[in-house]
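The instructor's notes for this session suggest beginning with a concrete chain rather than abstract definitions. Hand out the sequence below and ask the class to guess, before any prediction is shown, which regions might be ordered.
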Amino acid sequence: MDTTTAPDAAQIEETQASVKEESTQSAREGKRVPIGEAIRYRKRAQDAESRACELAERLSEVEDVLDQTRGALESAERMRRIDAALVESGAVDLDAARLITEASFAREEGIDIEAVVAELRRTKPFLFRTRRARVGSAMGGRSLQAGHGLEDAAREAARSGERGALLRYLRARREGS
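After discussion, reveal the predicted structure:
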C-alpha cells in the first residue's frame, strides 16, 4: 500500500475482511499468528479507524459549509427577486426599499414579494416614482411648419447658432422630415 495516497473505504474493508479470514483460518488449524504480524495488523486497523474518524469530521465540516452556501444562495436569490420587483414597480431609492422589504420578510416567512412591494408602495409612496402621463420635453412643443424641410432647419441652425434652432433641426432629423 502506498503511503502517499490515503486508502479508501473499500480498501479498508477488504483488508479487514482478509485479516478476519486469516485469523479464523489459523484458529481452525490451531496455529497462532506470529506476534510481529499481529502487531502489524493491529497497527493497520488503528490507522484505518483514525482515518475513518478524520474523514467523518471532514464530512461534517463539508456539510456545514454546504448548508452555509445554500443559505447564502437562497438569500442572494431572494434579494434578486426583491430588486426585480422593486425596479419593476419604479422604486426611486432601491436600497431603502430593499431594507424595508427584507424587514418584512424577517417578520413573516413565506410571504409573496409582489404583495410586500405593493404594500410598501401603498404605505411609503415617496420611495417610488409616480405613474403620471408623460410630461412634455425640454425642447418645447413647436414642430416644423409644413413648408420647412430638413435642409431649411439645418441652414437656420447653422446661420443663427441658437439653441432652439439646433433643437428644431435635431427633432426634424429624428422625425425623418
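Then share the key points. The radius of gyration is 39 Å. Confidence is low (pLDDT under 50) at residues 143-147.
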